Structure formats: structure tokens, C-alpha cells
Amino acid sequence: MAKIKSQTLKGFRDFLPEEMALRQKVISLCREVFESFGFEPLETPTLEYAETLLGKYGKEADRLVYLFRDRGGRQVGLRYDLTVPTARVMAQYKNIPLPFKRYQMQLAYRAEKPQKGRYREFWQCDIDTIGISSPLADAEIISLIYALFKKLRFKKFVTKINSRQVLFSLMEKASLPKEKILTTLQSIDKLEKQGQAAVEQELKRKGLKPETISQIFKELPKLKPNQELEEIFGYLKGYGIPQDFCQFEPTLVRGLDYYTGAIYETVVTKPKIGSLTGGGRWDNLIGQFTGKSIPATGTTIGLERIIDVIRELKLWPDLSPTPTRVLVTVFSSRYLENSIEMVGRLREKGIPAELFLEPETRLDKQLKYADKKGIPYAVIIGPDEVKAKLAGLKNLKTGKQESLSPEKVIQKINPN
């Protein structure tokens, strides 16, 4: 038999159990916070018609969409984000009551160069409020970000806030032709990563006059919040969000074409990893499907980068690499029935429990297996325990062992 090389595609990853424990914990906390704010779950297909995806993000982003023809000859693509599919859902299911507050946690795909915090297959966690034009909806999204990051144990983070309308006003003041506005904003969006000189050169290649470029960069730092942003900052104060968490950032652009109003990104002081959330108001996107604009605002929570930060800063040192709380050992085949009965009682009480499946394996080897996996407890039922109708409970972290009734074992492992 020919040997097959074991490998993954570049930008795609496997997640072993220890990594999955961290990922599932983050996803669980996201879901908990989303639902505490009244958001409801939504899922959409991995594949969409190409016409659904293209022409919504901008030319640069469109080049990153995975496109192909399926066996039926249809031009299809892997979803690039979760916002455009949600806009399609709103157009397709006209009976969804408004306002609609949805959260969505699924894989997305982008054919870009992989780097730290950026992959070709990655999880997105989105929240959006659809059908509300009030800046209060934007403020609620930002307050949710604050609540989530505190739940994740983040300490030093800030959400930068701007508005596309503020930027559009600058473009008009610079007498920029309408057809050049979005492509200019896409270049300015690279300012932090590439620096002003590189962005200026890109704008020259796009046909902007030197005096126009000069005026844009002269006026950009002078921009002030408009009335919409002032309202958002006022609402955030009412939510009790600290002022140092929310900052007006005149150079914040967000690269996708569909943003129409307030935009926001969240970053951490350390490590330098880019934005952990990014979103804003997208009032016109649904109208591309229906012909009628429906206001909407929301953000993406960058699961991959959040996990990288948690790992790098060691924020969750007490997280177990396994969901299993206890290993029920098998003293010998003679006492297998007692061990099976015990593991059944644990599972009935909702305690994740594993039964060692090789009855003749030495007990010390079974305990080493549990310790290696990070299982905190082991139950030992030998002849003395059977005779006394007890079970030995060993704490694998401290090494302490005590003989208890099965009921006391359950209470000790799961005191709640």
C-alpha cells in the first residue's frame, strides 16, 4: 500500500483535545454573554451562490473569496464572513420579526496569506441587531464587547470608535470623486500596518492627486465625533462603561465596503496581534437583496485571536485540558461490575466520568493515564472497598486518598 503523507493545507489546522478545551470554553462564554443580552442563534450554509457573496465587500476582499463551480455547473463560494449570509437570510425570510438580534458562530474562509492570528479557515462569532437605526443599538453592541472581555478575564483592552459618515465628510471636503471614495478608504485602512508613506504611494497608484492626498492626511487627525457618535458615547456612559475603554479614533476605517455609519474595533495592549473585534453599522447591505434598506449594526468577535491572547498571557492557567472529572479504575476483572456500576452513578449525576477499558492493566498505570490526561480524580474499588460498600477517591493533584460512600464520592467531586 502506498504511504500517504500526513499534512494539512496551508492556513487550515487540526485542533487536538487540549486545544479544543480552550476553544469550547471561549465559545461557551461567548454564547452565554450573547444570550444574556437577548441575542438568538442563527446558522447559515457553508456554501452560497457566488452572486450572494461578491460585490459586497470590495474588490480587494472579493479576490479572497473561495469560488468554484459545483457538479451542477453552479458558480458557488465558501462564505467569506457571516454578515452577508445574514443579509441574505433577512431578504429570504420576510416573516422574521424586527428588531432581530442574532448571534452566529461558524467557520468562514478566506484565500489570504496565513500569519499569526490570520488563517484561511477560521471561526467567526458574530452579533447583529437588525431593524434598529438608533445609536442605542450600536452602544449595546459595544457594551456587550466590554462584558464579554471582562468575562474572558481580559484587563487591558480598548474599543476604538469612528463613523464612516465622518470619513465620508472628509472625502467630500477633499473633493474626491464618488467612485474613488471607497477605494481610498480601503487604502487608509492599511495606515496602522503599513505607515503613511506606503498608503500615500498606493493612493497615487489609484490616481489621486498629490494635493488631494496631502489634504486628506492633514485633515484626518483633526476629525471629531459627529452627533451619532456623541450619542453612542453618551449611552456608553449610561451603561457604566469606563471612558478609557472607549476612544474616538479618527483613522479607524474598517476595510469592507458595506459599512455605512458607526464603526468599531477592539484591541489589547499586549500582545500586538491586531483587532480582536471589528464591526459597525451596515444599513444598506440587506437592501442589495430586497431593494429596500433595513438598518443593522453588529460586530465580529475574533475567536482565533482571542484564543491566541488567552494562551500567550496565560489567562486561564486553571483550565482543565479534558472535560472528564473522574477516572473509574478497574482493580481487576473480578471487580469490573462494581466499577461499571460506579461510573454509571457518576454519569447519572451529570459528572463526566471515564471507565478504564482494560481490566487487567496495573492500577498504577491506570492512575498515570488519568494524570497525563489532566483528570483531577480517580475512583478505586478493590476488595476492601467492596466489603465495606465504599469507594476510594484519590485527588490526583494532591495525592490524597480517602474511602467514602458512593454518595459522598459524588458530593466531593461535584459539590454543587
Task: Explain how this protein is built.
With 416 residues, this protein is an alpha+beta fold. The protein folds into 2 domains: 17-313, Bira Bifunctional Protein, Domain 2 (BirA Bifunctional Protein, domain 2, 2-Layer Sandwich); 326-413, Rossmann fold. The chain contains 17 helices and 16 strands. It has helices at residues 17-36, 50-53, 59-62, 83-92, 135-151, 164-173, 178-188, 191-194, 196-205, 210-219, 227-238, 287-290, 303-313, 336-348, 363-373, 383-388, 406-413, and strands at 40-41, 47-49, 67-69, 75-78, 100-109, 121-130, 157-163, 246-248, 262-268, 277-281, 296-301, 326-328, 353-355, 377-380, 391-395, 401-404. Strands 1-5-6-11-10-9-7-8 form an 8-stranded mixed β-sheet. A hairpin with a 5-residue loop joins strand 3 (67-69) and strand 4 (75-78). The chain starts with 16 loop residues before the first helix and ends with a helix. The model has no long low-confidence stretch (mean pLDDT 93).
Strand count: 16
Q: Could you name the CATH homologous superfamily of the largest domain?
A: Bira Bifunctional Protein, Domain 2
Helix content: 25-40%
Q: Compute the gyration radius: what is it?
A: 27 Å
Strand order of the largest sheet: 1-5-6-11-10-9-7-8
CATH class of the largest domain: Alpha Beta
Average pLDDT works out at 93
As residue ranges, the low-confidence spans are: none
Task: Assess the beta-strand content as a share of residues.
Answer: 15-25%
CATH architecture descriptor name of the largest domain: 2-Layer Sandwich
Number of helices in the DSSP assignment:
17
User: How many separate structural domains?
Assistant: 2
Q: Report the sheet with the most strands, covering strand number, pairing sense and barrel closure.
A: 8 strands, mixed
